[in-house]
Task: inverse folding
């Protein structure tokens, strides 16, 4: 640092005086500059601010201070040069520079550029210090100086980004298995953006995955009719017709796909994967083999897709080669290892081909078994943040046994987020959901705090039920044995003129069942034991004692089992005063 020492006596002569060091740094010149500003000595302030820049060239505030003085002196071009330097070289995130630039260009009469920078400032710092001034400036520029072109371009860009982001969100929900949420999101998007073709295609898929096949087909046909070359709609229809028929229509779409090889990587992957999904494995293999020669290095999903197509064609050597590459990479290693083992078994058993999914992930049943193990850990926070686990749960809800579906309903009641609620609401509308499973789902929604009404399939049609009308003891209908236990105890109490004990018994039993439902997917065991235990416990709570042995004999169970069950129930009674 520069230092200046005062060494002469105030009286003159050569007498040595006290040495007073003065440190000439950015802080020193900043203080001087501020004093000059207070005295309105702008040129001296400018010189002092230049010194701050010299001493601290990495401090953006120094440039802004100097730019401000230059603006006051009317040198807007020099001021702009400094501000643009800050944004390009020093601190691109310093949003205030954009506001200062807007002021400068407005003073120079370049209102369109001023409008551009004020919009950039509002984008960069929507809660910033100068937002009020910036909005006022924008209004003046548009209303009084005939502006608005930059604003129109900004608004168009903002809408474009929203469309892109919304479409991405819809696709991501599909990829994560959040099909019900995807339907709701995409329907809302398309109300506002009816020309968003990717969103229509994604909504068609979302309808298909949620079982709304007619709507899925209608949308895909509609897109293809209006846009005959739309590859995604063609792929969607090929999959739908392969699964739903008729066969003749499927063959038409499959033949069209086999003639296509897009130069766009994503489109080519879509064609190859679709051919594989509809059983055209040789066609899929040709697409993936052509594509892998064009992509360096190939992505894991392409490597697996090529191996899967080869395995489905019975070309084990090709499949082994590429799964070995996958197993030695950085991603999807577990997938490669799993299929290498599966391929080895297929060769040992002399299978002509190995049926393989084109998804670069472990088979659904393997993932679902993993999900069941994870579910036993009772860690909702981990479940919420694991998209593969959630996708496996949704698969289990759609395709699993009733026991599996009930386990998933239980877990979704614990996850209790927006998508879990939407999924449970949609599940109730299915015609194949049993009454006990409906009750479990209604209880899950009740536990989550769901409001409004729900639609459920009943007596051959969908009916609407207000959540406020769902009985508080709906948990009793989740399992017929749970209802039987309470009914038996209630009947005994009525027969013995103990009607005033019934509400306490109901409250304790439902509380216990709710606790059981949340903690375990297993049942309660032998219902007769619980009926005897509930009766004994409720009588004990009212000091109206019966012998444990008698309660056990009434239900033909052992006294020791009643004792154990009653001790578990005791904590669920409201204590008498």
Result:
């Amino acid at each position: 640092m520069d230092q200046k020492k005062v060494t002469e006596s105030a009286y003159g002569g050569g007498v040595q005086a006290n040495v007073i060091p003065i440190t000439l740094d950015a802080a020193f010149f900043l203080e001087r500059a501020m004093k000059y500003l207070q005295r309105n000595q702008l040129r001296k302030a400018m010189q002092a601010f230049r010194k701050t820049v010299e001493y601290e060239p990495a401090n953006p505030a120094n440039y802004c201070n100097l730019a401000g003085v230059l603006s006051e002196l009317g040198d807007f071009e020099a001021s702009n040069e400094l501000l643009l330097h800050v944004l390009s070289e020093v601190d691109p995130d310093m949003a205030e520079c954009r506001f200062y630039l807007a002021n400068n260009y407005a003073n120079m009469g370049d209102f369109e550029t001023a409008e551009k920078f004020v919009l950039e400032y509002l984008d960069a710092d929507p809660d910033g210090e100068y937002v009020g001034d910036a909005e006022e400036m924008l209004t003046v520029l548009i209303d009084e100086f005939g502006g608005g072109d930059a604003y129109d371009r900004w608004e168009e860009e903002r809408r474009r980004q929203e469309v892109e982001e919304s479409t991405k969100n819809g696709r991501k929900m599909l990829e994560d298995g959040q099909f019900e949420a995807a339907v709701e999101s995409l329907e809302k998007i398309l109300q506002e953006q009816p020309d968003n073709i990717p969103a229509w295609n994604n909504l068609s898929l979302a309808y298909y995955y949620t079982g709304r096949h007619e709507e899925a087909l209608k949308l895909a046909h509609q897109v293809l009719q209006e846009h005959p070359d739309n590859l995604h709609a063609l792929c969607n229809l090929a999959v739908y017709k392969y699964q739903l028929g008729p066969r003749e229509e499927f063959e038409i779409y499959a033949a069209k796909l086999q003639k296509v090889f897009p130069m766009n990587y994503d489109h080519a992957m879509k064609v190859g994967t679709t051919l594989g999904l509809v059983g055209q494995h040789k066609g899929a293999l040709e697409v993936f083999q052509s594509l892998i020669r064009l992509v360096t290095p190939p992505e894991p999903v392409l490597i697996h897709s090529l191996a899967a197509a080869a395995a489905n064609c019975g070309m084990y050597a090709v499949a082994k080669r590429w799964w070995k590459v996958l197993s030695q990479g950085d991603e999807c290693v577990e997938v490669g290892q799993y299929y290498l083992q599966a391929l080895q078994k297929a060769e040992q058993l002399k299978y002509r081909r190995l049926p393989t999914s084109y998804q670069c992930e472990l088979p659904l049943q393997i993932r679902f078994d993993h999900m069941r193990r994870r579910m036993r850990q009772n860690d909702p926070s981990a479940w919420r943040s694991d998209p593969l686990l959630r996708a496996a749960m949704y698969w289990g809800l759609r395709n699993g046994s009733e026991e599996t579906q009930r386990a998933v309903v239980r877990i979704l009641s614990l996850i209790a987020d927006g998508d879990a609620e939407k999924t449970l609401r949609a599940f109730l509308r299915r015609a194949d959901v049993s009454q006990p499973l409906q009750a479990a789902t209604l209880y899950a929604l009740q536990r989550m705090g769901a409001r409004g009404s729900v639609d459920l399939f009943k007596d051959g049609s969908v009916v609407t039920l207000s959540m406020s009308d769902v009985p508080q003891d709906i948990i009793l209908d989740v399992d017929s044995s749970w209802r039987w236990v309470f009914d038996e105890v209630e009947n005994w109490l009525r027969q013995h003129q103990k009607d005033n004990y019934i509400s306490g018994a109901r409250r304790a039993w439902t509380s216990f069942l709710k606790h059981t439902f949340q903690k375990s997917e297993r049942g309660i065991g032998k219902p007769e034991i619980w009926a005897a235990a509930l009766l004994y416990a409720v009588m004990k709570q009212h000091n109206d004692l019966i012998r444990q042995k008698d309660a056990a004999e009434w239900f033909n169970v052992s006294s020791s089992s009643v004792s154990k069950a009653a001790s578990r129930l005791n904590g669920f009674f409201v204590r008498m005063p």
